[in-house]
Amino acid sequence: SARYFRLAADQDDKEAQAQLGVLLQSGGDGVPQDLAESARYFRLSADQGDVNAQLQLGVLLRFDYDGVPRNLAEAARYLRLAADQGDAISQHSLGCAYLEGLGVLADPCEATRLFRLAADQQMSEAQLSLGRMLCEGYADVPADKRAGARLVAQVARAAGEDGETVRDRALELLCSYADETEVVAACCIGCGAHHRRMTKCSKCHTARFCSSECIKRMWPTHRPSCQSWQAEQATDSSSGLFGAGSGELDVPLSMHERI
């Protein structure tokens, strides 16, 4: 198939050029990896408007490879072309560039706009990025903690194609906000679900759970924050919440209280 892709690519078929760029990028199907040639075919295709080639070239140019020097301005330009065609991955990647000032002037408002466009297409990474920005506020972007927490919780509840990694990051983010009651409200840090009645950790009195299953699953993630909050409370009240020993906590379900 690589031979036919090359024949079509040499006749300016943009889809064949993009497919050949992918083959050359990863190697395979009898084609040795050649990132310089990959970038060349991506550029030929991208300049004809192929959205996948624009995305691939934009991502490739963000790093420094043999034969493909890093060019953040060009990377942002191609990501912009793909983003303007509605590609969610490009919108999120370009949003990250605007947030960090990579190849463009830093612009948190533009980053938020791009994150929102991608989030509206149900891209979990974008929902997580937007949720974090809204929860924390950023430069000229005012905080909207409830809206941000809802987005993060939505990612935590999802079992989509982005897999467990994104979901786990969302749960960790919810866990880090557990002491801000105005953020998490009745949000379970174990699954992101909202319930009228929740279980509150009786050690730190901040994290909330909807079930014993969520308590068991999230305890390894919650424990460092729980210990930190207990240490702060102990300092403030001199009540010695940590017992003698190593400070390792083993919280049975009976040590959580209903709220």
What do you see in this structure?
- The protein is mainly alpha-helical and 259 residues long.
- It is built from 12 helices and 3 strands; from the N terminus they run αααααααααααββαβ.
- It has helices at residues 2-9, 14-26, 35-46, 51-60, 72-83, 88-100, 108-119, 124-136, 145-157, 163-176, 181-184, 212-237, and strands spanning 199-201, 208-209, 256-258.
- A 3-stranded antiparallel beta sheet has the order 2-1-3.
- A hairpin with a 6-residue loop joins strand 1 (199-201) and strand 2 (208-209).
- Helix 5 packs across helix 6, helix 7 packs across helix 8 and helix 8 (124-136) packs parallel to helix 10.
- Mean pLDDT is 80; it is low at 239-259.
How do the helices and strands line up, and which of them pair or pack?
Blueprint: H1 2-9, H2 14-26, H3 35-46, H4 51-60, H5 72-83, H6 88-100, H7 108-119, H8 124-136, H9 145-157, H10 163-176, H11 181-184, E1 199-201, E2 208-209, H12 212-237, E3 256-258
Antiparallel strand pairs: 1-2, 1-3
Helix pairs in contact: 1-2, 2-3, 3-4, 4-5, 5-6, 6-7, 7-8, 8-9, 8-10, 9-10
Notable characteristics:
single chain; 259 residues; mainly alpha; 3-stranded antiparallel beta sheet; 12 helices; disordered C terminus
Q: What is the structural class?
A: mainly alpha
Q: Radius of gyration over alpha carbons?
A: 24 Å
Uncertain stretches of 5 or more adjacent residues:
239-259
Largest sheet: spatial strand order: 2-1-3
- Helix % is 55-70%
On the 0-100 scale, what is the average pLDDT?
80
* Beta strand count: 3
Using the alpha-carbon principal axes, give the shape. elongated
Order of helices and strands: HHHHHHHHHHHEEHE
**Helical run tally:** 12
Largest sheet: 3 strands, antiparallel
